[in-house]
Amino acid sequence: MAFTLPDLPYPHDALAARGMSRETLEYHHDLHHKAYVDNGNKLVAGTEWEGKPIEEIIRGTYQPGAVAQSGIFNNVSQHWNHCQFWEMMSPKGVGMPSELEKRIVDSFGSVAKFKEEFAAAGAAQFGSGWCWLVVDTDGRLKVTKTENGVNPLCFGQTALLGCDVWEHSYYIDYRNRRPAYLQNFLENLVNWENVASRLPG
Ligand code: MN3
Q1: CA 106 to centroid of ligand 1, rounded, Å
Q2: Which has more pLDDT, 172 or 1?
Q3: What is the CATH number of domain 21-87?
Q4: Is residue 118 pLDDT above 90, yes or no?
Q5: Ligand 1 geometric centre to CA of 164 (Å)
């Protein structure tokens, strides 16, 4: 089945009061995400990957250590990344469920420490990419950063939270202040219930 652009789970202006403008979501969702969907469909058509589950395509086309990933990987993984990203934010302040808080405190010492580590990873990603909170293969929670479209699926990890640090995600609202964008994301935009729902049972 072809990839399709999902609607945002909230109106385009729903996050404006929380630090992500309508204009950012119009560019980021309607144009950037749509381009990954359209290019992914074009590139996958007629290949062995056509009709395969998206996670299988991402894991199957990721080339560890490669200087540049293939067009299929880049577009399909960015489609997956953005689908998660929209769901990981909310127009309402959503508190952190206690089960998630306990796991974070167990792994990082405190919620504040975790946020510090996450924001630092996002700020330190050189060029385009993402920072993540993942469940690692040993079951521990961990903060990571990845370049371009690479995501935790490539490493057998479960993505709990991801933040897009490509310039298109913050330049309209924050210009070059990526750390301010990351801080706002953590304090005002994250849907912690969605993050908790991703913990493996
Ligand atoms: Mn993006």
Answers
A1: 31
A2: 172
A3: 1.10.287.990
A4: yes
A5: 6
